[in-house]
Here is the input.
Amino acid sequence: MLSRTADSIYWLARYVERAEYLARILEATQRLTALPLAYCGSTNEWESAVATAGCTGSFYKTYPEANEETVTEFLAFATVNASSIRNCFEGARSNARAVRTALTTEMWEAINGTWLDLKRFGAGPFTREELAQFLRWVQESSLRFDGSAYRTMLRNDAYWFSRLGLFIERADNTARILDVKYHLLLPAHQHVGGPLDYFQWAAILRSVSALTSYHWVYRESLKPWLIADLLILNDQMPRSLASCYENLVRHLDLIARAYGRQGPAQRLARAIRTRIENSRMEEIFQKGLHEFIGEFIADNNRLGSAITEQYLV
Amino acid sequence: MRIRISHETSYHYDAAPTGVIQTLRLTPRNHDDQYVVNWRIEVSEDCRLDVHEDAFGNIVHAFTADGPFTHLRVCVEGEVETQPADGVVHGAVERFPPSLFLRETSLTRVDAAIAEFARKSRSAQPADPLSTLHRLLDCVHGEIVYDTDPTHVGTTAAEAFALRRGVCQDLTHIFIAAARSLGTPARYIGGYFHRADGIIQQDAGHAWAEAYVPELGWIAFDPANGICATDAHVRVAVGLDYLGAAPVRGTRYGGGGERLAVAVHVDQAGRQAQN
Here is the structure.
């Protein structure tokens, strides 16, 4: 397979995953701000949404203030934001078009259909209800695309590269959510057990579709350290760091086996996975969750560039 | 090195037992220089394999098989990829401070002979724990003859030392006992060893020791081969002595006339190019 083809497939999957993640953040934020003020405290949810998306710098170049209107505009529709939902779908579609023959018909139709539908939504402005519909549509589009890839692709290097893109992006997203909300996860919080906590934590879980899973796994009320445990160490949870790395290692191994050659990307992925596997929550909290996540995000980026270096250029 | 391992433990009973309970420490974990590519455990009877982690961080499987049956076979097989690390263990699971591994056990009790033996190996360069351990490694390897006959699984370090004979398990116990008597934390490692002489079929797994050197961490010494562990060693279980790291422990209800056969294959798997 040409590096160029692998690169397009990898980024196609990354962009679709990122669009879905942005929709999840916006939805969670919308839900939080819809609560009565007494529940919400004084933090600016919209500011933290921008931080979770990892684009605080570029946001304040365009907008003076973070509020519902500007953040929604920026994360969903702005053409100036390289990773707004609109631009993610644009990027995904142009990558898909470049490697049209490497994709199945179903995948192409899913992504092209999404791109065509995107025009229907125009540039806003939206009522809250319309926005909610839009965000659902984004998530459904991503589900449709991912499902069609899963169901129709031949299990060869093209499929494996699409998984790499997906899981690198997903690991980054989960880590960012934890990092931005980490102050909430600190046990010594003033309002531990209060309604503010409950809604904030539920929002974290909801943004990675894990609220129900949480209750299945722990069968108790929301506890910050258990949430961190679920999103970092639980390999049954499909968006946890452990699960993302299990998948990354597996697909990198499959690529290495098919090509009969392995390199820095495999070694790095295994090392990161080993570290997660051998960690325990008490140790992570002792060392500092923020430090752990910061290190993880840096490692994950390093793996991203190792994959790029080894296969995509 | 990519190492393919299969380890089969089979029991034959003249009188069928009504049940068997076993715990298996047969699953290696990843650390920085060891990566488990795939690993599988099979038990010949219907049972549920429960996985948990013991206090040292070993992966333990436990099962109960209901009899009667006259044969029981526990098979593990898999592939592990290792990197050479000059005997230093990086990134392994550590649940306890090193000083815990100074604790004496009945299999590693220090008697006067071992204490004297340990003292002699120290006298050369008292200030440097690493070279003391290397000297100890050479002494154990040189003085104890590798012999599968006179010892059995319950032989203590002192008994084996008195005989000056033993298998890798006994040599490791002697090394651990001697190191602990010098105040160096040491622990027992159960695992597999890929032999450079091309012998693939082995009668048992391998055993070696790890000793703690401040500022360097845990260093693996293999007294049976007289070397530090290399990428030919696959680390499976950690314990204070053999009993803590034994691959299979268990008991049975009823039955009798038990005969045990162990077959271990350790081979190099198809090589992959590294770049």
